[in-house]
Specification:
Layout (H helix, E strand, L loop, with lengths): L7 H11 L3 H8 L3 H8 L11 H13 L19 H4 L3
Helix pairs in contact: 2-3, 2-4
Length: about 90
C-alpha cells in the first residue's frame, strides 16, 4: 500500500475533474460538506491526519469516478518528440 500526502488543492482539482459538487462527495463519503470545504481551502501542506478515515472515503469516491492520485516523486515516461512526419495526416 502506498500512502500519499493529499493537499486541499489536490482534492479541489480532483473533485472538479470528476465533475462532482462538494455536497455530492460529502454525501457519498459520509462527511459534512463544511469539513470538505475546510480541507479544500486549507493552506497547510496536507489534510489533517486526524481525519485519515474520512479522507480515505473521499479519495475512494474520487477514485471510483476515475481520478488517479500519483504519489509524490513519481514520474511519468517522457512523451516521444513530435516531428513533422508524426504530425502528417494520411
Amino acid at each position: 500500500m502506498i500512502i500519499i500526502e493529499i493537499t486541499g488543492s489536490m482534492l479541489r482539482t480532483a473533485r472538479s475533474l470528476a465533475g462532482l459538487s462538494q455536497q455530492e462527495i460529502a454525501e457519498r463519503a459520509r462527511i459534512s460538506r463544511p469539513s470538505l470545504t475546510t480541507w479544500e481551502n486549507s493552506s497547510s501542506s496536507s489534510v489533517p491526519s486526524a481525519n485519515t478515515r474520512a479522507l480515505g472515503r473521499v479519495v475512494s469516491v474520487l477514485e471510483n469516478e476515475g481520478v488517479v492520485f500519483i504519489a509524490g516523486g513519481a514520474t511519468l515516461p517522457p512523451l516521444p518528440p513530435i516531428t513533422a512526419q508524426s504530425e502528417a495526416r494520411p
